[in-house]
Amino acid sequence: VQLVESGGGLVQPGGSLRLSCVASGFDFSSHAMTWVRQAPEKEREGVAAIDKDGTTTTADSVKGRFTVSKDNAKNTEYLQMNSLKSEDTALYYCFTLGAYWGRGTQVTVS
User: Fold this and answer.
1) Beta strand pairing call for 33-38 and 45-50
2) If I label 64, which of 15, 29, 47, 83 is the partner at 20 to 30 A Cα–Cα?
3) In 10 A of CB 40, how many CB atoms?
4) Four-residue CA torsion sign, 7, 62, 90, 110
5) How many beta carbons lie within 10 A of that of residue 4, not counting itself?
6) Helix ranges (DSSP H) in 16-59
7) Which residues, other chains included, contact 79 with Cβ-Cβ below 8 Å and sequence gap of 6+?
8) d(CA 35, CA 93)
9) Nearest to 78 by CA among 3, 5, 7, 19
10) What is the pLDDT of residue 87?
11) C-alpha torsion angle, residues 6, 11, 13, 14 (rounded to 10)
């Protein structure tokens, strides 16, 4: 299993970014995918998830601003992040199968 995130960067407050997670090594369309973030000196936080049927959940802290989606044909999960705040600054990871993590992509809002 391999998960590769991209799309992070430096953005001003109020800006937008779209993160991508390209997956390989398993049947992407049959499994849920999750975005998790970790900020310095804070606990890891689940941000958003999408199940195999496309049903999504988002954390209260990002509800209305972040949207998770996926493209099964591309084995890719996305996280559209709008109205970014300084508190969204973190390393963002994708996670699946209860055990597999990517290396993460850094999002800095400043």
Assistant:
1) antiparallel
2) 29
3) 7
4) positive
5) 14
6) none
7) 18, 19, 21, 35, 47, 48, 66, 67, 68, 92
8) 6
9) 19
10) 96
11) -70
> Encoding tokens for residue 46?
């689940």
Could you report the per-residue pLDDT of 7-59, keeping only the tens digit for each? 999 999 999 999 999 999 999 999 999 999 999 899 999 999 999 999 999 99
How distant, in Å, are the alpha carbons of 48, 52, 53 from that of 38? 13, 25, 27
Residue type for position 109: V
